[in-house]
Fold this protein.
Amino acid sequence: MAACPYSARMFHWREPVAASQDQGSEYNVELNVPQKKGTISKCLFSADRLRDGMLPYCVSACPNGVFYFGDENENAVTNGTTKETVNLKELLEQNGGYRLMAELGTKPRVYYLPPKNRIFEFKKGPDTEYKEIT
Amino acid sequence: MPDNMTGSVFGSEKYREKLDLISSDILKNVGISKGFIIWMGILFAALAACLYAYSLQLKIGLGVTGLRDVTSWGMYIANFVFFVATSLVGMLISCVLGLSGATWVKPISRIAEIIAVAFAAVAGLVIISDMGRPDRLPYVFLFGRVQSPILWDVSVVTTYFVLSLLLWLFPMIPDLAVAKGKLKGQPAVLSKAYELLSFRWIHNEEQYKIIGQGVRILLILIIPTAFAIHTVTSWLFAVTPRAGWDSTIFGPYFISGAFVSGTAAVIIAMYFFRNSYKLSKYLTDSHFDKIGKVFILVSILYIYFNINEFLVPGYKLKAADAIHLRELFTGEHAFLFWGVQLFGLVIPVLLMLFRSVRKPLPMLFISIIMLAAAWLKRYIIVVPPQAHPYLPVQNVPVEWVVYKPTLIESLVTLASILLVLIIVTLLSKLFPVIPIWELAEEEAKKELKET
């Protein structure tokens, strides 16, 4: 928990809400279920879907098509919305792709593309401050 | 420890005489008494309440604490660091000072060992209280990976505990042999324990030779182990890339801090043992004066590492460090930070420079304040760096970000302190707290030299 600089992990501080629906089944590493109190989870890029040759849930569900997913070795990524497969290296080079905190040496394989061709005015959202939800 | 095994001392009449004299003094207050029963009763009652709090944590989960995904290490880990730190004093007093030939530490070396044993034993339990699945503890040993600092930590803490326990027990064997016939009005269990733990000691010169060598080996072994346990504890933080923990001097910074909290604990124990067990003949004002000087030395060393730890990143002010340091120097934790540094470190050191302060009572007050400050210092080291992770925390409830210890958490932490008090009381009240034969040897030697 404390060691992850990306805050990409979460802990089951109490009995997980959805724990009962998988109760009794054998632990599935790819799905991270059944969830257990007192254990850690993190995003596995929907490993169960990948095994079946499908894109992760979040990628195929995003209506704005902002996610590309693929195999770095194949140098190809696919957009979940338009189903368009593009060359990863070219995509990153032509759009100024970058990684978060690559200088920490954790070799992250999530790339980000800076915004371009905005069609509406950008409003500054929550930046470094956390907001209290009431 | 016998540095010069002349052999003649242990066979001499003088030694026997001194052994009788000192043992009758020391053993007067050893054993179960009314005060002991009442004190232990209070401790166990309080412990039961605290264990109830822990049972709630076991049932509901770590969610009963103030810990959340952002600040996932809180009071428990701070407490763990504090316990490991305090236990290190056994190494400082018995090994470093003892091996360097400082004979004045002899009467307090066993006190230091008791502190080491109690704090090291409970440190291992404290870490379990922070585990989400304590039932999986054996997995650390069964499936532990050498790359994991957790495995390093568990291995060295257990090793240090075992070595400290041996260093407490081993030099006490002759004392128990002396004491086993002299206990009056004590339950048979205690004399049985003495009988068992004195391992048929017959005050043979050959036995003294063996014990001298054995103790020496233990003393030497404990030094690297003690360095290892606290260095590894510091590495639990220093190997993460977080601002505030990402420091190359964390090892020595923690070890120097450990000497401060440990010395404070020993002085507090010395004061109470001296009063409750009527030991002012053996724990003299001069001992408080001398350990006061040791206290000054280790505190100045710690101040030096503090300056390094905060001034250097404070000069560079790298973005992430700057956020963390601003919180400490002028922000949310400024009150705690400056309070601990000034009242828990700098001002006590300045006060102790005066000879009149290095007396038992003022030393007790200073030690209590410094020990409390040492605990809070661990809290400052552990908690604030987590509130500002590299990636911004967005759109979450404020209590997920700002760590506030809960009552349950505080009670579980209190349980660890009660456990230490229980162990210290058991070891100091049921067994001779001052090394009898070592003092007898020293006095006999001194008098034989004079004649």
The longest strand of chain A covers residues 68-71. Residues 128-134 of chain A have pLDDT under 50 and may be disordered. The CA atoms of residues 91 and 104 of chain A lie 24 Å apart.
